[in-house]
Amino acid sequence: LALLSAGIRIPRYVAAGVDGIVMIVGAVVVVFFATNFIVPFQGFLITLGTPIAAWCGIMIADVILRRKNYAEADLYSASGRYGDIRWLPIGLIVVGTALGWGLVTNAAATWLTWQGYLLGPFGLGGREGPWAYANLGVLLALLVGFLGILVFGRGAIRRQEALPTEEPAQPVETARR
């Protein structure tokens, strides 16, 4: 179903079929051809966790900066206050991922030996140094997303909230009581 979210125009049942085939092929490879499960799984988690951390940082900062609820109808409209593409978050995910992958390693998965390319230049001892397996890249990706929106996204959020809405404006409830 991610194919539909990416904008590929195919029937829903075809997208579900493609997803199912990919999952079955992946399971067959892991069960019958991989020498163990944990190595490819750990590599998958570290590699996927880095861009997800950047996305989480973006979402956390966005929620912190908002003083009003989202205008729900505008979330589903490309011409709404949120638009269809917000380039700042996309750029932050790309930058956070690139920096993050440079600070993570997974030597057990040979197909991921390209990661960790910034450990040497940042003086962290390279791919075999004391910081190699700390996976600081996941934390860095989170910080890039969070601080990027906190610093550069504040104005866009204020502009979005300043637009009139057809829904009754309700302040976001806070935990302060």
What share of the residues does DSSP label as strand, in percent? under 5%
Question: How many helices?
Answer: 7
Structural class: mainly alpha
How many separate domains make up the residues?
2
The N- and C-terminal alpha carbons lie at a distance of: 41 Å
What would your notes on this structure say?
The structure is a single chain. This protein has 2 domains: 1-33; 37-162, no CATH class. The protein has 7 helices and no strands. By secondary structure, the chain is an all-alpha fold. The longest helix is centred in the first third of the chain and has 28 residues, at 38-65.
Sum this structure up briefly:
The chain is an all-alpha fold and 177 residues long. It has helices spanning 2-5, 12-33, 38-65, 72-75, 87-101, 136-152, 154-162. The chain has 2 domains: 1-33; 37-162, no CATH class.
Comma- or semicolon-separated keywords:
2 domains; single chain; 177 residues; 56% helix; mainly alpha; 7 helices
